[in-house]
């Protein structure tokens, strides 16, 4: 495991306190938080975009297994990464799809969604999945620190957002809530 290489900034002056499996992977501590959300919220359907090597899918899958119900659908377009993620999550309530996040259409409401694909796709992915969400759906977005540039686009949605000061930034919100 390596220390996250993000530079210090006013919102996160000590990024060296977080860890990641590689320079592209989500911080381990953030994935533990995502898993805790899944444990606490008891979702039936979880959707993740950008499976990468499957560390997020592993955290979510383990939380769903501990809950005793629910399933994760996660999407990845890279065949090598898809294979790693599929192997990493074998035996868990996880389906790793080798396809674009835009090609997946849920057949039931989404209870929790974790957006962690390419940053330039995340807002469009959220819009794609929004019709499949309800007023209790909780969503999380990785890489929302100012240097990633897309966080302000989330303000177009009438949702009360919670931004957390992690090295790369993480934002959570609940569909059906407003900032008012």
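Q: What amino acid sequence fits the structure above?
A:
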């Amino acid at each position: 495991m390596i220390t996250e290489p993000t530079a210090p900034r006013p919102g996160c002056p000590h990024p060296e306190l977080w860890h990641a499996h590689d320079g592209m992977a989500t911080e381990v501590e953030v994935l533990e938080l995502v898993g805790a959300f899944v444990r606490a919220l008891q979702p039936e359907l979880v959707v993740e975009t950008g499976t990468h090597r499957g560390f997020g899918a592993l955290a979510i899958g383990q939380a769903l297994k501990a809950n005793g119900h629910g399933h994760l659908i996660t999407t990845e377009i890279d065949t090598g990464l898809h294979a790693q993620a599929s192997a990493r999550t074998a035996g868990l309530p996880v389906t790793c799809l080798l396809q674009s996040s835009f090609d997946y259409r849920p057949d039931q409401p989404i209870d929790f969604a974790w957006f962690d694909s390419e940053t330039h796709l995340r807002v469009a992915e959220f819009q794609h999945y929004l019709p499949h969400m309800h007023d209790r759906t909780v969503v999380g977005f990785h890489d929302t620190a100012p240097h990633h540039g897309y966080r302000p686009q989330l303000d177009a949605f009438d949702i009360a957002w919670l931004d957390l000061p992690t090295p790369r930034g993480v934002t959570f919100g609940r569909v059906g809530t407003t900032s008012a």
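Q: And what stands out in the fold?
A: Helices lie at 28-41, 55-67, 79-88, 122-129, 151-154.
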